[in-house]
Amino acid sequence: MQVRHKPANVVRFDRNRRSAARYKLQLPVIFHWNEGGERTGGGFTSDVALDGALINSSMCPPVGSDVRIEVLILSPVWGGVEMRIQCVGKVTRVLDQGDVMSFGVRGDFDDDHLTPSLRETSKVTPVSDQG
Q1: 68 contacts 38 by C-beta, under 8 angstroms
Q2: Domain count within the chain
Q3: Tens-binned pLDDT, residue by residue, of the chain (131 aa)
Q4: Among 13, 38, 42, 47, which residue has the least CB neighbours within 10 Å?
Q5: Is 117 inside a domain boundary?
Q6: 52 strand-pairing partners
Q7: Residue 118: Cβ within 10 Å count
Q8: Per the confidence metrics, is the pTM higher than 0.85?
Q9: Looking at the domain assignment, is residue 3 inside a domain?
Q10: Which CATH number characterizes residue 96's domain?
Q11: φ and ψ at 23, to 5 degrees?
């Protein structure tokens, strides 16, 4: 019989602590943290709110880590240009559900952190809703 050990930094999360509405969105995300050097990972959001996100990934920063996440979306206003919404926050929990790992980030998304991808910036032309 094989015994599976959970990582030491897995914590239980009380859903009653959430202060903002959550939206079930599966969007690509890039995240960065420092763990003896700059680390970068990728995954997909499971849900997103103004005050953070739950991210599914094969690698997770440890609980308590400062993390910067970039959620990638296509802008309907800018003709489908890839936009990045950034959030800087802390990892609040790590969940190991067997074949899927997830981590929660508590931080704020706001309009000041909405930027077009650098590779797309030279091609940006707003789409007018007036004909």
Answers
A1: no
A2: 1
A3: 443 434 434 434 444 454 568 889 899 999 999 999 999 999 999 999 889 999 999 999 999 999 999 999 887 777 778 888 899 999 999 999 888 899 999 998 876 666 666 444 444 444 444 44
A4: 38
A5: yes
A6: 49, 106
A7: 8
A8: no
A9: no
A10: 2.40.10.220
A11: -120, 125
